[in-house]
Design a protein that fits this description.
Shape: globular
Radius of gyration: 20 Å
Number of helices: 5
């Protein structure tokens, strides 16, 4: 593979992480199927809820919160998934006009900035998790929804968000390192 071809333009099989993402990126790419299945499961739950509610007049108390949870964690993971595939949104007006060496420098700089931003957001998420997962006395107790069913989904989403942001920061460091080294 030509070392001068930027990652976004390098030929690769449809549906895989960029080589610069390393083992972590490959692992994250494979994990995407779990969250895709979660969206399908959410759709099936909603179909069941419509039938139970409008055909049998027997709605559930758990369907709405469960589908929101499943879709929410899928969207959160989606950011990490896009990072591993180098499919995040970027303004390419300047980037596309650059030569291969300058693009590589931009890839390194962009990855470093994104790693720092992800780490700061992970820290902010930790502050949120402290309130959502621990009582004032320090004992563990996840925040609950407060509904009739009262699942721990809000606490789980906050913990998951923190973990994803921390892993995203690590993934951006891996990308920056591999872009700097010219590894494919």
């Amino acid at each position: 593979m030509d070392e001068n071809i930027p990652a976004a333009e390098a030929p690769r099989e449809h549906g895989e992480s960029v080589p610069e993402a390393g083992r972590l990126g490959r692992w994250l790419d494979r994990g995407g199927i779990v969250f895709a299945a979660g969206i399908v499961l959410a759709m099936l739950i909603l179909m069941q809820e419509v039938i139970l509610r409008y055909v049998f007049n027997a709605p559930t108390i758990w369907a709405h919160e469960t589908t929101v949870f499943l879709c929410g964690i899928a969207f959160i993971y989606g950011g990490l998934y896009c990072t591993a595939r180098d499919r995040h949104i970027r303004v390419v007006l300047i980037y596309d006009a650059l030569g291969p060496r300058l693009r590589r420098a931009f890839d390194v700089a962009i990855s470093i900035v994104c790693a720092a931003a992800s780490a700061m957001f992970a820290w902010a998420a930790w502050l949120m998790v402290e309130r959502a997962a621990f009582r004032p006395d320090g004992s563990f107790r996840l925040e609950r929804s407060g509904s009739a069913w009262d699942p721990v989904y809000p606490g789980l989403v906050k913990v998951f968000l923190m973990v994803v942001l921390a892993v995203m920061a690590i993934q951006f460091v891996v990308l920056a390192w591999n872009y700097a080294k010219g590894r494919r």
